[in-house]
Design a protein that fits this description.
The protein is an alpha/beta fold and about 350 residues long. The protein is built from eleven helices and ten strands. Helix 9 packs parallel to helix 11.
């Protein structure tokens, strides 16, 4: 996979992990013990009024910026569906927001999707099944530091302060798990993406999180970190990389760092975990509203890259279904729409409604 695109990488080692299965998606008790017990008493299907709340991650992330573009494009080009983008703590929190009817369409990633499919905490009592809608992007996640001489995850030692993305993020769980293959002797702290650079400069953070969007683009907050600190990309040791490559819950990818400038240290090839981020809705979300949402966005897709360069990948119709999860069904409205556009993949399951 060295030097390959994210599409080649994920095709060779699917994000879906078919062995995870789809049992236990729906529980009977709801999320009272995990995300709170607030819920909607309305008998009307979520989204039937045409109002949609979209959530991704915190306000300083590329994902939130992208979501504001998507929401505005739909709202400005259709009279029946109105979408509002709101920030959230991350993918785990998004599932809770769906449960509490605080969001209507949210993004998650394959790590969270597999936990939902296996009814793992904190998703053991979901009273709905998340249904997939469309693919947003893929992120290669890594740890980085401004500490002089650091080049490897193995440089993290006892008492070092590490923020593997903010708490509440599903990405944090994945990075913490990958980090545990090398060390658990560190102090876990939580610092926002946009605050990591100053925290490193002030000596409050020894290692933070970084990401490359679609394995090729640096988000603005990472560029800011790089411009204000002597940022160093930390490599997973070869033996740890081998172990992670054999682990069914982690997808390792190889990023060619020659395409990036300005790092105080970067290995020629950065071996690091990656995640696929897709939007999901509730299984009872209104068919017509979701269909109209997708149709409106699809019809405007040629201009998405002009609004935000990271959205240029969505100009290609097949990208909307790229790296879907085998562990979660697609919403019937999404499946019908993609069939009509000629991009549906029969390998995926269609949920009932």
């Amino acid at each position: 996979m060295r030097g390959s695109s994210v599409r080649d990488s994920v095709d060779r080692r699917s994000f879906m992990k078919r062995s995870l299965g789809t049992a236990g998606l729906v529980g009977a008790a709801g999320l009272a013990g995990c995300f709170g017990d607030e819920g909607s008493a309305s008998s009307e299907a979520p989204g039937a009024d045409g109002e949609m709340v979209m959530t991704t991650s915190t306000q300083d992330t590329s994902a939130y910026t992208m979501s504001t573009v998507l929401a505005n494009v739909v709202s400005q080009n259709d009279d029946t569906v109105s979408v509002q983008a709101q920030p959230s703590e991350g993918t785990n929190a998004n599932i809770g927001r769906l449960s509490q009817d605080q969001s209507d369409i949210v993004y998650i990633q394959n790590w969270t999707a597999s936990k939902i499919a296996n009814s793992e905490d904190p998703f053991g009592d979901l009273d709905y099944t998340p249904y997939q809608a469309f693919h947003l992007y893929d992120l290669a996640w890594f740890l980085c530091s401004s500490n002089d001489g650091w080049t490897s995850i193995e440089d993290i030692g006892s008492g070092d302060r590490v923020s593997p993305t903010p708490s509440g993020s599903g990405t944090a769980e994945m990075l913490e798990y990958a980090l545990s293959f090398s060390t658990e002797e560190y102090e876990r702290i939580s610092i926002g993406y946009g605050e990591q650079g100053s925290a490193m400069s002030e000596g409050r953070l020894d290692a933070g999180a970084g990401t490359f969007v679609n394995l090729a683009v640096e988000p603005s907050w990472l560029q800011q970190m790089k411009s204000t600190t002597d940022l160093r990309l930390l490599q997973f040791p070869e033996n740890v990389t081998s172990e992670l490559e054999e682990d069914p819950s982690v997808v390792m990818t190889a990023v060619d760092t020659d395409q990036f400038d300005g790092y105080a240290y970067a290995p020629d090839t950065l071996d690091t975990p990656a995640l696929a981020y897709n939007f999901v809705t509730r299984d009872d979300f209104d068919y017509d509203t979701l269909y109209t949402f997708l149709e409106t966005l699809w019809n405007q897709r040629d201009g998405l890259g002009d609004e935000n360069a990271l959205l240029s990948t969505m100009e290609e119709g097949s990208f909307w279904m790229e790296n879907g999860y085998d562990t979660l069904p697609f919403h019937p409205a999404a499946a019908d729409f993609y069939k009509e556009q000629g991009v549906w993949n029969d390998d995926y399951e269609i949920g009932e409604q």
